[in-house]
Amino acid sequence: MTKIVKKKFKIDGMHCTSCAMNIDFDLEDLDGVKGARTNYAKQESEVEFDEDKVTPEKILSTIKKTGYKAQAA
Q1: Minimal CA–CA distance to 23: which of 11, 6, 41?
Q2: Distances in whole angstroms, Cα of residue 55 to Cα of each of 18, 26, 29, 63, 68
Q3: Domains: count for the chain
Q4: How many Cβ atoms from other residues are within 10 Å of residue 36's Cβ?
Q5: What is the pLDDT of residue 52?
């Protein structure tokens, strides 16, 4: 049985909406991520994911590899 959850992550370092789109693309490539909505104006991302396949730590790591600072909101 899958356990789908939504969590928000605070992101620092975005300069435009293209930054937000890049984060979304990278997160949505992760196995277990069902969707990501990153909001440049709010400097945060809301990610819907299967906790059995991907952890919040992996999501944070992916955001950081994309080039931004991130933490759980």
Answers
A1: 11
A2: 25, 15, 14, 13, 18
A3: 1
A4: 23
A5: 95
* pTM for this model (two decimals): 0.92
Domain range for 17: 4-72
Q: One-letter amino acid identity for 27?
A: L
The stretch 21-26 carries a mean pLDDT of 97
Both tokens of residue 37?
Answer: 């909505």
Give mean pLDDT, residues 17-39: 97
What is the amino acid identity at position 56?
P
| Residue reference for tokens 């930054």 | 19
What CATH number did the domain enclosing 63 receive? Answer: 3.30.70.100
| CA atoms of 51 and 67, how far apart (whole Å) | 24
